[in-house]
UniProtKB/TrEMBL annotation:
Classification via PANTHER family: GLYCERALDEHYDE 3-PHOSPHATE PHOSPHATASE (PTHR46470:SF2), N-ACYLNEURAMINATE-9-PHOSPHATASE (PTHR46470)
Keywords assigned by UniProt, alphabetized: Hydrolase, Magnesium, Metal-binding
GO biological process, one term: small molecule metabolic process
Name used for this protein in its record: HAD family hydrolase
Matching Pfam families: Hydrolase
Cofactor entry: Mg(2+)
Species the sequence originates in: Candidatus Thermochlorobacter aerophilus
Highest taxon in the source lineage: Bacteria
GO MF terms, alphabetically ordered: metal ion binding; phosphatase activity
InterPro entries hit by this protein: HAD-like_hydrolase, HAD-like_sf, HAD-SF_hydro_IA, HAD_sf, PGP-like_dom2
Length: 239
């Protein structure tokens, strides 16, 4: 059963960054696949593959909590490639090459750089009632990304795992946020897109958690939303 959530009892909402506030860049992948495979990648197929790769990473963390975010990144992109509806004869002998090409681009310019149109409006609306912050498993670029895409004015602080030396799902990184907010876990909720990292991590620190899943997976042990607009409805219209 999903844990009950009372928006009126909450004081703060803490967000994940990649896959929650910023999404993997469909325009980059569309262009890359046209160049590499002469294949026209559809947006719906792309985000279905992103969800499948995200699920694969969640299962990986369930099996081995000692993996790092950096070590999981190539695995994520490889799962993404295999989940896309690309003819096998096109992808089979080029998967490693394309995966490494994607990784190089990500290291050059973070690929989680796609801001959905309603994101800033949702944050502005939520900020009127709740304190907002961020915890991200990142590589030192989280703060700069929030500034670049206009997210930073809505956030009290950004915790980047690279800077604090601990990653989700370790409860310690959530404890850092709680200390900064000077709030008990019961007054905070965490919103993220990877169940074993975000939901389980937040719960291990005593917080409530909400899973953002574009497919709205049928989970009965946590609240699942398909978009940030659903989050706005949950916290403002039903509060």
């Amino acid at each position: 059963m999903a844990m009950p959530l009372n928006p009126k009892a909450l004081k703060a909402i803490i967000f994940d960054l990649g896959g929650t506030l910023l999404h993997l860049s469909y325009p980059f992948f569309r262009e890359a696949f046209q160049q590499q495979y002469q294949f026209e990648l559809q947006e719906d197929d792309f985000f279905k593959a992103v969800s499948a790769a995200t699920d694969a990473i969640s299962r990986l963390v369930e099996e081995n909590k000692n993996t790092s975010d950096a070590s999981r990144l190539p695995i994520f992109f490889e799962h993404l490639l295999y989940a896309l509806p690309i003819p096998e004869d096109l992808i089979s002998d080029r998967t490693a090459y394309v995966r490494d090409f994607i990784l190089r681009e990500h290291h050059r310019e973070n690929l989680w750089r796609y801001l959905l149109p309603d994101t800033l409006d949702v944050l502005q609306s939520l900020q009127a009632r709740y304190r907002l912050a961020m915890i991200s498993n990142s590589d030192g670029r989280a703060e700069a990304l929030t500034i670049q895409y206009g997210l930073r004015p809505y956030l009290e602080f950004v915790i980047d795992s690279h800077e604090v030396g601990v990653e989700k799902p370790d409860p310690e990184i959530f404890a850092i946020a709680l200390q900064k907010l000077d709030l008990p876990p019961s007054a905070c909720v965490y919103v993220g897109d990877v169940y074993s990292i975000d939901v389980k991590g937040a719960r291990s620190a005593g917080m409530s958690a909400i899973l953002l899943d574009r497919r709205k997976s049928l989970r009965d042990d946590c609240i699942v939303i398909r978009s940030l607009l659903e989050l706005k409805e949950l916290f403002l219209e039903h509060a």
